[in-house]
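Duplicate of earlier report; Calcium-dependent phosphoinositide phospholipase C input re-posted below.
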Amino acid sequence: MKKAVVLGLFLSSLNLFWSQSQNLNNLKINEIQVIGSHNSYKKAILPEVYSYLSKKDSMNFLPRIQYEHIPIPQQLDLGLRNLEIDVYADSKGGKYAHPKILDLVKTSQPFDPEGKMKEPGYKMIHITDIDYQTWYYTLEDCLKDLKKWSAAHPDHDPIFITLEPKDGKANRFGTEPEHYTSKLFDDLDNELKNYLGKNKIITPDDIRGSYKTLNEAVLNKNWPKVKDAKGKFLFVLDNNSENRDLYMKDHPSLKGRMIFTNSMPGTPESAVLFMNDPSPKIAELVKLGYIIRTRADADTMEARKEDYSRFEKAMESGAQVITTDYYLPSKLFKSNYKISFDNNTYERKNPVNGK
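Output:
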């Protein structure tokens, strides 16, 4: 355990040195480019569950979710500066406490031995009932770990976090997620404030400042410098339909909200955008002042083919946030595919707008 701690401190110091050597501190947070993980909390599907499901997988869907991550604090120790979290509402508790696949497959590992899923609160799962293995059963525990890690590394560069509010129709097992409401989004904001701390969060209000709208502030490049955003987190809601609109309701320009939204360029709330497929259009938006999130790989396809073309386009685009499932090579199938910048780092000056 001590060796792991020493290694983590060494890697953190190394990444801090690399950040400073590139003079990132005096750049604004929209003038850097970082690599982070996709569905950062996810563990691999248990082998016995994977084997059972693969026999019924006529659409060959299962290989697309055959990936896993190391614990989030270890990801941050490596230098990753983006995380992605799926959040299911569970206001009464127990809704996701028994994955239905467990009625069909005898597993080697118990699910939720401490009974955390039985308590009310936001839960972290990829796909209910089948892809349920997670480093954190609750958002609360995840936020507490982030706060603990941040306190141990107070000079860390800002960390971007995508929050995807998961709901929708019932799955094939009959589990229908709880649907988000305005109150549940208010509670989600409070969860971030209570367990991470408002002082640790870069909010839309911080960026809007004295400008009339958040979008106006962004077009005027009113983002803070990296050195002024150290030790902080910036959250973005991964939704561009009903849940996004519900989160924005009665909060013009996201006034009072803790989370940025994926809103169309030019709308009052627009600041951070999701463009999963790297394209030349990203560079145009980056130059205007927007922060863009894109992907280096998806559905394990690039990793299986060891194809870096998408990552190369993502880097060239100037998208400030690039996500991957492979900051380390896969242990679930044979591949040397691994994503990083030069010198095995995950943060650099933005090639499009970095001064």
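The chain has eleven helices and nine strands.

Merging into the original ticket.
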